[in-house]
Design a protein that fits this description.
PE-PGRS family protein; disordered C terminus; 0% strand; flat
């Protein structure tokens, strides 16, 4: 970890800043914590800022049994190893002054080319010090690219802090050889971090895209991460927006069915306060990608629900449903979030887009009404 900052003079003077934490030097390791800032003088001066947390080390991308855990061998004897997880960032150190943000999570390792391997999870972002942003969640690793069983790794969660850190994006599903039975899903996006006092929550990460297969059903898209809730304060923080769902893998050249789109993440709730924060918007649903040949397109994902407003805050909008593929159905739209007391309800999601191709998919369902706030107005219809 970083060294502590020097203290200010006995009566007056500013404390020194704490040193930054070192980056992790081993696979899957965590960054060092930042050093605490020095104290202010007795009468005058401000405390020094804490040092930032170190970054998590990236997951291992190599085919190396030391870093890839193995489980039971499936039929055929192929090793089902896992890419190593990325390391979490550490918290930024607290001090009497504004702290410094937490370190970012390391990205998950990619699956190797020659195995049924899943991408590693991204590391979580570290928590920020006072009023400082949380670290970003790490990106999920890409799935293995040989037999197509490698799903993308999930994104890391954003760290809490002044402003919540954003969630990491999910990894993309691994590729499969022609004719392989593939189930490679896109990884789920990480959730946004919670906002500190009166601060905004972090946005959720996007879901990863599913992979296409020639004959068998393609992989589904990953779910979007939820937005973080806004922090409580005199004026509540706004909720973070939900992440978008990943697109389903395209239908195959022959008869393969397109994968379903991932659902959008829900928006975070607005923070409470004399003036409440607005709820975050729901994430858009992923599209069910169309088939290139005679197969069916996948169904689209649903939009995420909008977050509820704090006292007097507006509810978030529902997410847009994805468009369906050939013969596939369009996704439903998310419901609008409820308005806080004394405010209008959130607007409902719009009607879903129709699918395209030989026949249209069904229309997505209408968004619901936002709740009526006390002394307020009813929400808009979808």
């Amino acid at each position: 970890m970083g060294g502590a900052g020097g203290a200010g003079g006995w009566l007056a003077g500013n404390g020194g800043a704490g040193g930054n934490g070192g980056a992790a030097m081993t696979v899957g390791g965590t960054g060092g914590a930042g050093g605490a800032g020095g104290n202010a003088g007795l009468l005058f001066g401000s405390g020094g800022a804490g040092g930032s947390g170190g970054h998590g080390y990236a997951g291992d991308n190599a085919v190396n049994p030391q870093y890839n855990q193995t489980s039971q061998l499936p039929a055929g004897g192929t090793s089902k190893g896992f890419g190593h997880h990325g390391g979490s960032g550490q918290d930024g150190a607290d001090s009497t002054a504004t702290g410094v943000g937490g370190g970012n999570g390391g990205p998950g390792g990619d699956g190797p080319v020659s195995g049924d391997v899943f991408g590693g999870l991204g590391g979580n972002g570290g928590h920020g010090g006072p009023n400082a942003a949380g670290g970003d969640g790490g990106q999920g690793g890409i799935g293995g690219t040989r037999t197509g069983d490698g799903s993308g790794g999930g994104g890391g969660n954003g760290g809490a802090g002044g402003i919540g850190g954003p969630g990491g994006n999910g990894g993309v599903g691994g590729a499969g050889l022609t004719g392989d039975a593939g189930v490679a899903q896109g990884g789920d996006g990480g959730d946004g971090g919670l906002g500190g006092v009166g601060a905004r929550g972090g946005n959720g990460g996007a879901g990863g895209e599913g992979h296409q297969y020639a004959v068998t059903p393609s992989g589904t898209g990953g779910k979007g991460g939820a937005g973080g809730d806004g922090g409580v304060g005199a004026a509540g923080g706004d909720g973070g927006h939900g992440g978008a769902g990943g697109a389903g893998g395209r239908g195959g050249l022959l008869f393969g069915t397109g994968g379903a789109g991932g659902h959008g993440g829900s928006g975070g709730d607005g923070g409470l306060g004399a003036q409440g924060g607005a709820g975050g918007d729901g994430g858009a649903g992923g599209k069910g990608d169309g088939a290139a040949g005679l197969g069916y397109g996948g169904d689209a994902g649903n939009g995420g629900a909008g977050g509820a407003g704090g006292d007097g805050g507006d509810g978030g909008d529902g997410g847009v449903g994805g468009a369906g593929g050939v013969f596939g159905h369009a996704g439903s739209h998310g419901i609008g979030g409820d308005g806080g007391s004394g405010a209008a309800g959130g607007a409902g999601g719009n009607a879903g887009a129709v699918g395209t191709g030989f026949t249209n998919g069904s229309t997505g369902s209408d968004g619901g009404l936002g709740a009526t706030g006390t002394d307020g107005h009813s929400g808009d219809s979808g």
